[in-house]
Amino acid sequence: MTRKDFIRNAGLGLISGPFVLKGTSYFQTRSLLKARPPAFNCVLSPAQTGGPFYMDPQFRRKNITEGQPGLPLKLKVRVMGVNNCEPVPGALVNIWHCNAVGAYSEFGQIAGNPNDAANASWLRGYQVTDANGYCEFETIFPGWYRGRATHIHFDVHLDFDPNEKVDRRPNASSTFYSQMYLPNSIKTRVYTEHPDYNARGDDPTGTNNDRLFQSTAASDALMLVFDESDYPNSLTAKFTIGLDMAGSPTKAQNLEGRKYFQLRENYPNPFSSKTKLDFRMLSPGSVTLSVVNTAGELQAQLMNRQLPTGDYVIEFDRKSPDYYLIPGTYFFDMQVRNQHGEFRQSRKLVIV
User: Fold this and answer.
1) Which of 49, 198, 199, 312 holds its CA 20 to 30 A away from the CA of 272?
2) Stated pTM of the model
3) How far apart are alpha carbons 218 and 298 in whole angstroms?
């Protein structure tokens, strides 16, 4: 499996205060790191079918509900180019999914659609990513239909022409099709507890019995990451679409970032096998820590998560089974996003 196929957060340790945390186990060891890491990782998304209910992008809108009953869901999407782990601005993200009773709009009773909704247009829409690759949707928690795990369809368009004829065939500007999946634990709670869903009960399939999900390599990259803090009033989910292309470097404020974090030199440097990199968070922020080559191409992603203030040390093993870096010159690249903006620092590392 190549770097573009899957980039995992492994082969590193995190040390903070008295804690020494190895590999991926650090997510369960320290209380501040118990939360699941953010969804915005630089991983190539597996492609999947667009399904029988595809329609060209028609409605540029953030809120796609059109009054459909259901649990409110805020969906935050980021499009990344995995060749250099940079965002893809100006990408059109088109989503569509079924309503609380498992029906799709703009289609009659075909392909298992339980209701004739040919004259409706709810739960469809598109947004265009901003300079940092982000876009958001306001929708409802999808319903389910027999034989499939709960999912949201999406495709990404580059150079989309909104003046072209709208039809049910793939548009030439569509560069990627796939599906977002919802964790079984969350869908079970919603389907059994929420009044707009509990009459039908739980989805009997789930991801563990969905043939399409189970047959897809690296399917975990298609799972939505949820914030349940406002449940049962609403849910928020994050998702990253990783495309096999280079993104556009963000205009990070390098000098201003010193107010919020300090990235120090790794030690030892040069090194042959392992090195340690320490940094200090002067204020909370979302941290992305990567290793890139001299051309700016991503070689390994070490961290992508929210961190509070404090001192941290990363132990990096260049001979990790998930990525093997040959001798040469590289850079630790650290990006921090907080309420003040996006900031970046880097440090050279030499492998001998």
Assistant:
1) 312
2) 0.70
3) 19
